[in-house]
Design goal:
Largest sheet: 8 strands, mixed
CATH topology of the largest domain: Aminopeptidase
Order of helices and strands: HHEEEHEHEEEEEHHEEEHEEHEHEH
Radius of gyration: 24 Å
Number of domains: 2
Number of strands: 16
CATH architecture of the largest domain: 3-Layer(aba) Sandwich
Strand content: 15-25%
CATH superfamily of the largest domain: Zn peptidases
Oligomer: single chain
Distance between the termini: 11 Å
Length: about 400
Amino acid sequence: MPTTTSTKKTSIVSLINEHLDEITAIRHDLHAHPQILFTEEYSSALIQAELTRLGITFRANMGGREPGTGYGVMAHIPATGQNIGACIGLRADMDALPITELNDFAHKSTHNGQMHACGHDGHTAILLGVARVLMGLEERPNPVTLVFQPAEEGGGGGEKMVRDGALKGDQDAGLGPAITRMYGLHGWPDMALGTVATKPGALLAATDTFEITLTGTQGHAAYPHLCNDPIVASAQIITAAQSLVSRTTSPTDSLVVTFGAIHAGTAYNIIPETAELKGTIRTLDMDTRAMIKARFFELVESTAKAMGCTADITWNNGYPVTNNDPTEADRVTQISHNAELTNNFELVKEPSMGGEDFSYYCLEVPSCFYLIGLNESETQAYPGLHTPTFDFNDKAIGIGMEMMCLLALS
């Protein structure tokens, strides 16, 4: 069973309480200044200023579209003493979403059309709080690397941070040894405040997307026999694609095929030449993911041909499955039971078909992604993620800080 260091939990909690008001103020500052993927200059500058104040060595300009660019930050806190343990990685994402905020409080977004609707301001504040607590401890058995990651919301910032060496460390530059295990968290509105949840294995799905252009023959709506109708072909493809779920995969496997956009035509009496379809396919198994991609191409192309049309398919590989290492999932479970600020642990019964680019760290080192509850009401639902009224619950900040600190010391 995973164990924690001899450092008393009470000293961690006392340090959390000492810094909590200021960390909450930082969270509010981040919330008021959201920036979407690859533009997170404000958050990055705030993080770097805080790390500099704490005397923590860091490297910036990571996680951009090109190597050596971006607003990601990697920081390292060395161990103390002689018997140095494995290097632990802790990750926070920091980008916002292109949503106009409808909340009305002092720290609401000041950037029109952008807001922290997924709680990344909370995640970043938590990790900055962890930095303060760890620097305040006399004993740190493990070196700890903090990864402040941009572009989680569709930009694959996790993959780009790995590309730029966030897991590799750098002894010469003072950024320590390579990370040997990694942890990330997410505030969860559907779960009660004080609850921690995770599971071994697949927690979140792979998130591939596709775009299809169907080309037929344009003509008058009164003479369909002289045309090849891409709208009818679209309807056939959309219906037939659901057989990938019901007749191609095992009933015990998980697959989602969703068409989210259809664009075709200009008038009621014209059969158009083209139709465009967009959608996503979600899977929880890598073999299923590869198989469904091949079958999808076959189904779309053959159905289009049968309708006298051609199909041009663009496939975009999304995030991989977020696959928790069983040992690290157990570690999170045990630590949640020992933490003072948590009051419940839930084993996630079924994976979510949503996606997370923490999955890229899971591909490289044993890792665990876990959830912390945000809802303190027993009667009212908490505003959902990616909605204009969401706001990270400040009362969950200390819980996240304690969990991350205990994992760093375990």
